[in-house]
Specification:
Helix 1 runs antiparallel to helix 3. The chain is built from 3 helices and 5 strands. It has a single domain, classed as 2-Layer Sandwich (Alpha-Beta Plaits), CATH 3.30.70.100. Strand 2 and strand 3 form a beta hairpin. It is α+β, with helices and mostly antiparallel strands and 101 residues long. Strands 1, 2, 3, 4 and 5 form a 5-stranded antiparallel sheet that branches.
């Protein structure tokens, strides 16, 4: 299992359209084989901060994800507008319950 996680920063003026585009794209991504979770959450609209958390079965599923037309369209629109990004892929060896839960 892998996670894609981090933060991205955009011009705050881009955030309203970004939210609409994510809302339209998210159901398609969630239907992709190997996608367990997908969230691009606007954390702070005033500074254009977006938190990213994605969970995928494996690198192969993530690779297919990047070939989907809705992701290509989204990337063309937003990658050049991105001011900063800390998003990375994390390999997960296992899971365990939260303490006390």
């Amino acid at each position: 299992m892998i996670f894609v996680a981090g933060a991205m920063t955009f011009d705050p003026a881009d955030i309203p359209q970004f939210r609409r585009d994510v809302a339209a794209m998210r159901p398609k991504v969630l239907a992709e084989q190997g996608c367990r979770h997908y969230s691009l959450l606007v954390e702070d609209e005033a500074v254009g901060l977006v938190n990213v958390i994605e969970q995928w079965d494996d690198d192969a599923a993530l690779a297919v994800h990047f070939t989907q037309p809705w992701i290509s369209e989204f990337a063309v629109k937003y990658l050049t507008r991105m001011k900063a990004s800390t998003v990375q892929v994390y390999d997960i060896a296992g899971t365990r319950p939260l303490p006390g839960v």
